[in-house]
Amino acid sequence: MLSRWMSGSSRNLDREYNCTVRLLDDSEYTCTIQRDAKGQYLFDLLCHHLNLLEKDYFGIRFVDPDKQRHWLEFTKSVVKQMRAQPPFTMCFRVKFYPTDPAALKEEITRYLVFLQIKRDLYHGRLLCKTSDAALLAAYILQAEIGDYDPGKHPEGYSSKFQFFPKHSEKLERKIAEIHKLELSGQTPATSELNFLRKAQTLETYGVDPHPCKDVSGNAAFLAFTPFGFVVLQGNKRVHFIKWNEVTKMKFEGKTFYLYVSQKEEKKIVLTYFAPTPEACKHLWKCGIENQAFYKLEKSSQVRTVSSSNLFFKGSRFRYSGRVAKEVMESSAKIKREPPEIHRAGLVPSRSCPSITHGPRLSSVPRTRRRAVHISIMEGLESLRDSAHSTPVRSTSHGDAFPAPGRSGRVESSERVAVIADENYSPADSVLPTPVAEHSLELMLLSRQANGAPCSIEEERESEAGTPAAGEAEEASGELRALCPGTGGLGPAQAEQVNKFVLSVLRLLLVTVGLLFVLLLLLIVLTESDLDTAFFRDIRQTPEFEQFHYQYFCPLRRWFACKVRAVVSLLIDT
């Protein structure tokens, strides 16, 4: 029986698991790993396959069965992190955007970052005005199809490719004009470098959006960039906080807290609500990693961070990689022949699908725009694989983040340090071109989160997804809980009271447990006959002898007397 159990255990340890990793060019890398293989082993395999040395900027992302995304932790077992059944599917993505992508040492690294930012542009994470959008798209064309050739590129050739979630004829003409007249002669490497230099100047460069709500119930997107923490509401960046101003990040349940210390010792606390506790924990871990990577001078300065002030409560996490300054110093020491780069042509793919099978949004009447939107969304299925941190759920964003109407928007109180600098109207996003000159959008993410309908059918569907009255009451209760003097004890406030009571009970329980352990140790010291060196040294100290004869012995006699009195009383009765 024992030998059978041992053989079964050895088979489990030797079991191999198939892993498929989707790369930035939409190709796939397949390998097998052992049960106890760490994340670092899989990551090293990928980097060897890509011939990549500047690998600290990249990571592996996966989705759990609850549709919540995670970054693979390199110090832990891959199999233990993957809650799904094998074979495992993951994605290779940029995790830490370079502060200056043009300063990267090797061309292969710049090319991979270029592919990531191209995905960001397509999926609506990188916002820009129309002129910048046209220039970025022209750089992509030049890098991937080369110089303009009248024989190969007929009129309207730029409309065959989709660089953004939505296009307009004017934007496509501008892209083709720049490609024809301004970029001729640029090599792919030069075009990619110019693309990176331009993208780096945009406010939303490196944005990894996490959908949340503020205390007023308004939809917002939190993100960590190379330069600091940002908050986006619709098409506006309402907060930008530098990394050296962020003093602490913590979470409790679905609530995320950001502690900020600004000039003149001004301290504020920003509070947001994630859709689920798992999403909030993921947001917190991303914040801890980004702050350590961009802020610290050395990896030896990294410390284990707790999500709670109490040592026995909350999650503990530690960033395990190198910091940005160390990565740059290491990159400067690279000396090898530049590796060969196999660039993928600009062909229809999950990242940039062709739109020749359907008309542009701007040429479709509003009554038909819903059907066209569905056809384009079929080409955006890659959001399930590449949209950075937004959890993909079966319900719409409107279900998780109800967007208040124009008349029903709640103004933030000055007494609460939360985002309320600018209010965003969903109607401002209903534009045929995603990158307007004077009103930047968060593309599809902001439209879905803020519930901006494009037709009567969409409006009906958004109404069908409106939360019930009970959920609205709960949202208002959360607001009352964080804003003093705004009402009675609501459900959210009651929940906070319950959490406080549970924290106090845990503290009392730990205190009682420690006292009980000390009491047992005291009894062993005074009453037992154990003659070990440890106990003998303690018993021979003057302090212990004084405590034993002056306090413990009288207390023991008093306690024994009381016990005898109670026993005799019980016998007499």
From TrEMBL:
Subcellular locations according to the entry: Cell junction, Adherens junction
One example of a Gene Ontology biological process annotation: actomyosin structure organization
One Pfam family recorded for the sequence: FA
SUPFAM superfamilies: PH domain-like, Second domain of FERM, Ubiquitin-like
One GO CC term on file: cytoskeleton
Domain named FERM: residues: 17-298
GO molecular function annotation: cytoskeletal protein binding
Keyword annotations from UniProtKB, A to Z: Cell junction, Membrane, Phosphoprotein, Transmembrane, Transmembrane helix
Main subcellular location of this protein, as a coarse class: other
Origin: domain of life: Eukaryota
Residues that span the membrane, as ranges: 504-526
Residue ranges, annotated region (Disordered): 384-412, 453-477
Biased composition (Polar residues): 388-397
InterPro entries reported for this sequence: Band_41_domain, Ez/rad/moesin-like, FA, FERM/acyl-CoA-bd_prot_sf, FERM_2, FERM_central, FERM_CS, FERM_domain
Function: May be involved in regulation of cell migration. May regulate cell-matrix interactions via its interaction with ITGB5 and modifying ITGB5 cytoplasmic tail interactions such as with FERMT2 and TLN1. May regulate ROCK1 kinase activity possibly involved in regulation of actin stress fiber formation.
Protein's name in the database: FERM domain-containing protein 5
Encoding gene per record: Frmd5
